[in-house]
Amino acid sequence: MVTNVERKRHDSSTVQAAVAAGHPATVEAGIEALEAGGSAADAAVAAGLASCVAETVMTGLLGGGHAIYYDAVTREARNLDCFVAVPGLDAPAGRRAELVELQVPFGTELVHYAIGIASCGVPGLVAGLGALQAAHGRLAWERLVEPALRLARDGVEFPPAHAACLAMLEPVMTMNEGGAIYAPGGVLLAAGGQLRQPGLVRALELLAEEGPDSVYDGSIAEALLAQMEERGGLVTRTDLAAYEAEWSPPAVAAYAGTHVLTRTGLAPLEEPLAVLPPLAGLPPPDRALALVGALDRPDAAGDTTNLVAVDAEGSACVLTSSLGLGAGNWLPGLDLHLNSMLGEADLIRGGLEPGDRMGSMMSPSLALDAEGLAFAGGAAGGTRLRSALVQVLAGSLDEGLDAAAAVERPRLHPADGVVHLEPGFDDEVAEELEQAGYAVRAWTDRHHYFGGVSVVTRAGAAGDPRRSGAAASLPPA
Predict the structure, then answer these.
(1) Hey, CA dihedral for 46, 161, 15, 259, is it positive or negative?
(2) Nearest Cα residue to 142 out of 33, 39, 20, 216
(3) Is the dihedral of CA 351, 355, 357, 358 positive or negative?
(4) Cα–Cα distances in Å, from 82 out to 53, 111, 122, 131?
């Protein structure tokens, strides 16, 4: 229960039922669930499954994620950890493939990655979707699978931001079974093309028939274990049987007259929000310096997606998910890309033992004030995730922007003494930053480097154009 929170002025005291996500087809799946009488959890599950068809450069059914759910009746929120776990429980002696090392261009930098079957951790996303539906859903599981299944059967349009990401990740996405999906006929899939993954039809049929357990004790589990044995991966039957999505209380940070509910992960929001001064009315250079001071952290890369769903009662669900870069291995006949979380150096903190949950920078978040839900959102983008989300939170809650304006506004990202600026900042911003001792890199184009934010607020809903995102709202009842 949130009490004693300062009231802020908004165009409306309630958040309209809406869905925002990283692809129009993902949004449509969530809206379909809401129109069928589903809850925010139902919409998030339907959209999450659809994202695993429409956004497979960013996420997939064998990945992991984090969610936050807010119940408007009880005014209580819970985090859900469905991220990847460390495999190797009862691993057969001697089964160990080597990681595949490669360099991936990210902007002007080459970023080191390790992929291959040895990089695959225990998937958690489907367990999380099942937990959301079981705890807060109103629609049947198989009904929530239907939109994703239609997308898999019909194919889905490949948007520009995904094509740009694919071009960057071509060495991974066209390995092994991926070539037939992302470079059909030997030509890399381009923007506006049709992404066709026929094996996902069977995978989703299995999910509809067997439920989420298909990934842990069913047909999909058997296919995954067979590939692990064939190629030397670490995930075992015991790993899959032991996996559970975990509910926990959210972390709370006071900001701009609200309580921001989030999670404390590898890139916690509480730190920058605690030191970020009010930005409303500041001159652009001062605003930029304040943001840089709050956000300056080490940099890294990553591929993630995010979605937000709010229902007619005002309950909300935010889900962030990822495969990492992807292992470059797909389950034959199912077109399911394995995650590569064990190869993500920025997620390996300290000694990890089989069964441990891996760390993550994901921060699905809500903001509540005395009137209830004011903001629901999350971001994609590795270490840029926090920078992107904080700037949209500030734009929405402090500076009074509507959802689209807050998301579309030019962003900055400080890392290792360099401040990256999107196009749209005044020249004096770069000059002030340089005078303060920062090196400045001014990007010539808007780029998915600066993260992908999806939000629903009292002032609308928005998906991030940097990731070809979209949003839609239900008409008022």
Answers:
(1) positive
(2) 33
(3) positive
(4) 19, 26, 10, 9
Domains of the chain: 18-473 (3.60.20.40)
- Strands 418-421 and 439-442 turn out to be parallel
Q: CB–CB of 43/456 below 8 Å?
A: no
Instruction: Give DSSP secondary structure letters for 193-209.
Output: SEE--HHHHHHHHHHHH
Per-residue pLDDT of the chain (477 residues; tens, 9 = 90+): 222 223 233 345 689 999 999 999 999 999 999 999 999 999 999 999 999 999 999 999 999 999 999 999 999 999 999 999 999 998 777 667 788 887 776 656 666 778 999 999 999 999 999 999 999 999 999 999 999 999 999 999 999 999 999 998 898 999 999 999 999 999 999 999 999 999 999 999 999 999 999 999 999 999 999 999 999 999 999 999 999 999 999 999 999 999 999 999 888 899 999 999 999 999 999 999 999 999 986 544 456 899 999 999 999 999 999 999 999 999 999 999 999 999 886 777 667 789 999 999 999 999 999 999 999 999 987 778 999 999 999 999 999 999 999 999 999 999 888 999 999 999 999 999 999 999 999 999 988 889 999 999 999 999 999 999 999 999 876
Pairing outcome for strands 156-157 and 109-115: unpaired
Length of the chain: 477
Distance between CA 37 and CA 48 in Å, rounded? 17
Four-CA torsion 39, 43, 44, 45, nearest 10 degrees: 100
Determine if residue 167 is left, alpha or beta; phi over 0 gives left, psi from -120 to 50 gives alpha, anything else beta. alpha
**Residue keyed to tokens 């239900």:** 474
CA torsion through residues 458, 449, 324, 208, sign: positive
Tokens of 427: 């020249």
Residue 291 falls in which region: left (phi positive, over 0), alpha (psi -120 to 50) or beta: alpha
* Under 8 Å between Cβ of 15 and 310: yes
Q: Yes or no: say if 269 and 389 are a contact pair by the CB < 8 Å rule.
A: yes
Provide the edge-to-edge strand list for the sheet that holds 258-262: 251-255, 258-262, 365-369, 372-380, 452-457, 460-462
Q: Judge whether 464 and 407 are in contact, CB under 8 Å.
A: yes
**Does residue 301 contact residue 107 with C-beta atoms inside 8 Å?**
no
The strand pair at 246-248 and 418-421 is best described as: unpaired
What is the C-alpha separation between 408 and 358, in angstroms, rounded? 32
